[in-house]
Amino acid sequence: MAWIGGRSAGRRRGAVATAAATVLLLGLTACGPDDTDTTDDNAGGDEAKNPVESVPREDRLRDLLDNLPIEIDPELWEQGEWANWDSDTWLREAGQYISVIIEDFWDADRMREALDRERAIDEDEIDEPATPEPEAPADNPDADRGITDPQPAVVQARPATTPYSANSPAIGKVFMETPAGSMVCSGAVVTDPDNPGRSNLVATAGHCVHAGRDGGWFRQIIFVPAYNDQGHSLAENPDPAFEELAPYGTFWAELVATTDYWVEQGTEEGGNGAHQDFAMMRVSAEDGSGRSLEETVGAAYDISFDAPAVSGIGGIDVVGYPAADPYDGQGMFVCSDEPGRLSLDSAEPVMYRVGCTMTGGASGGPWLATGANGTQELISVTSIGPFDSTWLAGPRLEAEAREVFDEIRAG
Fold first, then answer.
1. Which helix (H) or strand (E) holds 367?
2. Is residue 341 exposed (0-12), middle (13-18) or buried (19+ Cβ within 10 Å)?
3. How far is the CA of 268 from the CAs of 271, 285, 351, in angstroms?
């Protein structure tokens, strides 16, 4: 057993917590002998060093445990105390995310049987305009705020090209333990400016790591890149081996952050909190090798925190692992469309909306647009969709999302 945990966020009452419709949120072995990073600290130059790695993990854990409002016994946690979701002990504030790496916890059976993080929206509660609103100039995204465009045409999700390890290695599934049991979302590896080519950062949705205003941080969170590499359905392969489901192994979240907006407003049902439904994780390899996630999979996406207005974005690819019927959660799917606008809170940056038939489980999956350099960059993550699974929406990433990103980078 090895403990991992850390400061999950920055200021309370700020934008970050590190740690009005009815809406569908599509939401081990021990480490090395000394429990430290074994990678070459000089790789990529001094600027590539991660300040967190200069503090031994056990020291960070000890500091975290000493500052929690409740007492946690590591041995009892390993024996199952992590499953105690009593409201008095469910940690929810910034700086209180904690996890423990338990040997063989996320085995093939637990991953395969995890349920989707589902929240659904009653479309009657969305103010669809009778006539389209004018487009905002591409250089003025603020003009998009408060506007909802007509519902997009349905786009049928198509299977992603297999093997995922060769075509979409930076995209995978996020697994977490919740009061309702083992759950699953989607996520993507993103670049870390402080560690070029050696990122351990994963972007996903806030509701995939934190229950919102009525709960706290989920537990035992991992990321599995290129999950189920060959894309076989359960009907084709009802009892897949662990190596088939996790071709690169598993990566445990040691730091987690989401926005205060999600923590304070997000709910189990409804669109509350969706405008800032974004989260970041710093992960470490379960096998204790010290090899970074980006080095392991060979890819990562840049995040754009200043995308143009909706009128200037063009076509995007929305990617995820839908797990609710008619999907079984084993395959990666893609919807390609040009986004429209959706507003549930006119004071917040507008949400993007596309036609898509993906269901719960696709939560947190990346929204990829072509950037100025001609490569795909992440501009959003999947947050909500309707009961009939005809479209998806994701938050526009601006200052609050950047603060979440910077908090995780800083460690």
1. strand 366-370
2. buried
3. 9, 31, 19
Its pTM stands at: 0.86
Model confidence over 389-410: pLDDT tens digits?
A: 999 999 999 999 999 999 999 8
Distance CA 405, CA 411 (A): 10
Consecutive H or E run containing 254? strand 251-259
The DSSP output letter for 121 is: B
Would you give the end-to-end CA distance of the chain in angstroms?
Answer: 23
Chain centroid to CA 125: 26
CA pair distance 392, 26, nearest whole angstrom: 9
| Strand blocks (E) in 98-200 | 98-101, 115-116, 158-159, 171-178, 181-190
State residue 394 phi and psi, 5-degree precision.
-145, 155
Give SS3 for 394: strand
CA angle 47, 48, 49 (to 5 degrees): 95
- Partners of 393 in the beta sheet? 353, 384
